[in-house]
Design goal:
83 residues; alpha+beta; Alpha-Beta Plaits; 2 helices; 20% helix; YfhL family 4Fe-4S dicluster ferredoxin
């Protein structure tokens, strides 16, 4: 699953630089995650780095985008391939 940022976000700016896929960006009101770039850090780290640094725990899995570990790995390969 891709991750989402909920309305509890306090715009503290700590998650954005932690994302190895540059999936996190400043939205109109809070930070947002591009689900096409989010791999939950699969391929980079053992745990989603944004979740690790978030002080308000507002980055859950997106229930509308179920993805298996293999699908996340495929997305990682596509994002990091030099084509």
């Amino acid at each position: 699953m891709a991750l989402i940022i909920t309305d509890e976000c306090i715009n503290c700016d700590v998650c954005e630089p932690e994302c190895p896929n540059n999936a996190i960006y400043q939205g109109d009101e809070i930070y947002e995650i591009d689900p096409d770039k989010c791999t939950e850090c699969v391929g980079h780290f053992d745990e989603p780095q944004c979740q690790q640094v978030c002080p308000v725990d507002c980055i859950p899995l997106d229930p509308d985008r179920p993805e298996t570990h293999d699908q996340l790995m495929e997305k990682f390969v596509k994002l990091t391939s030099k084509s």
